[in-house]
């Protein structure tokens, strides 16, 4: 995982309307590290010290290392829909716009 480019990617996404806050961008690497460590710990607690590469036809095993793309993908998928609150300015009005 190329964490060095993370801030730049998030800033670019923000320019295109993704509602990242400056705080989220500033804390992106620390947040990534925390989520990756939690994911690896949960895999280890369930007896899994590796994951199978979903893109490898031979089912290559990848060590459950916090800095691998597969761990980033697992952490991302787990994060979807959790603790995400919509921006009030971006939500639809229930009063028909009045």
Strand and helix map with partners:
Blueprint: H1 6-15, H2 22-26, H3 28-45, E1 50-52, E2 61-63, H4 69-79
Structure description:
- There is one protein chain.
- The protein is mainly alpha-helical.
- It has helices at residues 6-15, 22-26, 28-45, 69-79, and strands spanning 50-52, 61-63.
- The protein has a two-stranded antiparallel ribbon with strand order 1-2.
- α3 packs across α4.
Briefly note the structural class of the backbone: mainly alpha
- Which parts are unreliable, with pLDDT below 50 for 5 consecutive residues or more? none
Taking all Cα atoms into account, the compactness measure Rg is: 17 Å
C-alpha end-to-end distance: 47 Å
Name the assembly state.
single chain
Largest sheet: 2 strands, antiparallel
Enumerate how many helices there are, as a single number: 4
Strand content: 5-15%
What is the string of helix and strand elements? Answer: HHHEEH
Shape assignment: elongated
Count of β-strands: 2
Sheet with most strands: strand arrangement: 1-2
Share in helix = 40-55%
Mean pLDDT: 79
């Amino acid at each position: 995982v190329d964490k060095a480019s993370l801030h730049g990617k998030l800033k670019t996404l923000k320019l295109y309307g993704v509602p990242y806050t400056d705080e989220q961008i500033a804390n992106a690497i620390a947040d990534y590290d925390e989520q990756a460590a939690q994911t690896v710990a949960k895999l280890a607690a369930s007896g899994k010290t590796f994951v199978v590469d979903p893109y490898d036809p031979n089912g290559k095993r990848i060590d459950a290392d916090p800095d691998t793309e597969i761990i980033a993908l697992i952490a991302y998928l787990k994060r979807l829909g959790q603790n995400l609150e919509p921006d009030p300015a971006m939500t639809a009005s229930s009063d028909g716009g009045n």
